[in-house]
What we know:
By secondary structure, this protein is of the alpha/beta class. It has twelve helices and 14 strands. The longest helix is centred in the C-terminal third of the chain and has 27 residues, at 277-303.
Amino acid sequence: MISHLLTSHTQKIETSLVRELLHYSQQPDVLSLAGGLPDEKYMPAYPSLDVLADSRQYGPSEGEIRLREQVVSIVADRGLSTVADDVLITTGSQQGLDIISRLILDGDSTILTEQPTYLAACQVFSLQGATIHDVASDAQGMSLEALRQAIDAHHPKALYLIPNFQNPAGHCYSLQRRREIAALLDEKGILLIEDDPYRDLCYEQVDLTPICSLLKTAPWLYLGSFSKVLWPGVRTGYSVSCPAFSPYLVKVKQAIDLHTNRLGQEMVSYFLSSGGFPAHLVTLKEVYKHKRDVMAQALSSELGDLVTFALPAGGMFFWLRLPDGVSSTLVLEEALRENVLVLPGVPFFPSESPLKDSFLRLSFARVSLDDINKAVAVLAGVIKRLLTK
Ligand code: PMP
């Protein structure tokens, strides 16, 4: 028995359903629509060690300077102007969430998120003991009126948003909503944590202006990742912050792990400098867009009006609203009996909601076209059976 050793926050920490289900998706006979995993068929080969700079020694906590400068130019293309001093290389963008949480959140703090939102962000916020309040969204993004009310009611320290091809709901904010949210945060002086790992997987003409770039006075932190477009196993991401935050972020990073794995940073940096990155993104977008369309077609033809979903303009996920009375948790159990793995929406809701058990998040990125059709057919059979029960 070690429970008396745990802090009050770690006693309450829940495991991530996504990570728990991951072991099923590794079984060869299981078709998985559950994880947010990229397709390894389209991951570039690792560069050979001979072409990489020597990375055997300890390195700087901020990250390799060449990679930080590359990040400066990547985010400049997105409309976010920064300098290498305000870029921190992190062990995936997940670590960026951890670092900012350790810096600003404790048991007295409140943070606002979208409803639904990325469940592993909630895990990190909860680990610091923070209170999470989720705010309703419409098709344009987080509802401005609901956000204003939540700010006035809860006096949050920060707002956590995934404005582009959100995980799990897939939505993308309109430019107008981005501007309105930025203006409200400036007015209230609230920190924006903008998490943007999916933006390069963009299949339609949509506005992707970073909300951070629209802020005039409010503090901000922007998180990016190479996981969805290169190699998630290499665990390389970054944060870009308003200058006032940068020295604090580095101190927390030093305390956590000294610095991110240098070999991984070298691999990413080498690939970016090789000139092949733009063409690689074109291929990824073509492949994933096609998979998205095949899944949309399969869902429509197998389930018709029984379910509702919006076509995601980018990213990896469909957010499927189940027919009334059909539980997402039961769908998971029944589909797994037929070797199809889906992810119930339940853990993506930080607070109680009557709709909690009414959604599935379906990822189309890693499955083959054939398997998309097979998996959706099984899923449709399960949903129809549950409806008649
Ligand atoms: N934020 C969001 C919204 C995500 O979906 C993920 C990965 N699923 C992450 C952050 C973490 O990504 P990574 O640590 O691999 O960069």
